[in-house]
Specification:
It is globular, with a radius of gyration of 13 Å. It has three helices and five strands. By secondary structure, the chain is of the alpha+beta class. Helix content is about 25%, strand content about 30%. It has a five-stranded mixed sheet. The chain has one domain (about 5-90). The longest helix is centred in the first third of the chain and has 11 residues, at about 5-15.
Length: about 110
């Protein structure tokens, strides 16, 4: 498991969570509920790890909604901080741009 994602899970477990304005907008636009995202964290798979991202370390995860449809969620930790976990964005991945399992970008 990604070190970044492990830390994000610890922060969420300790209720140190923030949803960015962009994250709220994307959740609303995509019809995704926060409880669906948080409820599927246990089965989340890290798709991409960005330890050196300029805004702070982050990860792209594959999660599922209650009907089993894929959701990509970007989680991060602010640069030079140790908390909170931030839900940066969430969206329903376009199957034309991702492998069948939604774990690899198609080039």
């Amino acid at each position: 498991m990604s070190k970044i994602f492990k830390r994000i899970l610890e922060l969420i477990e300790n209720k140190q969570l923030l949803i960015s304005s962009h994250g709220y907008d994307e959740l609303s636009d995509e019809g995704i509920l926060v409880r669906e995202v948080l409820g599927s964290l246990g089965e989340a798979k890290v798709v991409e790890d960005y330890p050196d991202y300029w805004k702070g370390p982050c990860v792209l995860t594959l999660q599922k909604d209650p009907t089993g449809n894929p959701i990509h969620v970007v989680w991060g930790i602010p640069k030079d901080k140790s908390f909170p976990a931030v839900l940066v964005t969430a969206y329903r991945p376009d199957p034309r741009k991702w492998s069948e399992d939604f774990l690899r970008r198609l080039r």
